[in-house]
Design a protein that fits this description.
The protein has one domain (6-20, 36-117). The chain has 4 helices and no strands. The chain has 120 residues and is an all-alpha fold.
């Protein structure tokens, strides 16, 4: 969990780089399972895009002084979602079909994050 404030807001660059590295790992797994469950892969990618839009809207519709807390929340939400996927990425004991079943749970988890963070 990260707790960003104005004095260390620039640590976002490092955090974001780590997230991009995690995305590469996730992309490799998605490439491996895309033929097994193409609809779930598409649904996962669309759900992640929706989560990104919701988190971005939350930032853009907030007061400037709330940015550190909103950045912190957004980074932690993305890290939490990524960590779930990364747990199965390198597990060779899990079949592609089982990984697809896990993706159903990841989508459900993102749904909850989306609903919790939607602007009211």
């Amino acid at each position: 969990m990260y707790n960003l404030k104005w004095y260390n807001i620039f640590s976002l660059v490092k955090i974001r780089r780590t997230q991009l590295e995690d995305e590469e790992k996730i992309d490799k797994m998605i490439t491996n399972i895309k033929n097994t469950c193409p609809d779930l892969v598409i649904e996962y990618l669309l759900k992640y895009r929706e989560l990104n839009r919701v988190l971005s809207d939350k930032l853009y519709n907030s007061d400037f002084y709330a940015y550190p807390d909103i950045f912190t929340s957004g980074v932690n939400i993305v890290n939490e979602e990524y960590s779930k996927v990364l747990m199965i990425t390198d597990n060779n004991l899990i079949t592609n079909r089982e990984k697809c079943n896990c993706f159903k749970k990841f989508i459900s988890s993102m749904d909850k994050s989306i609903e919790k963070n939607k602007s009211k």
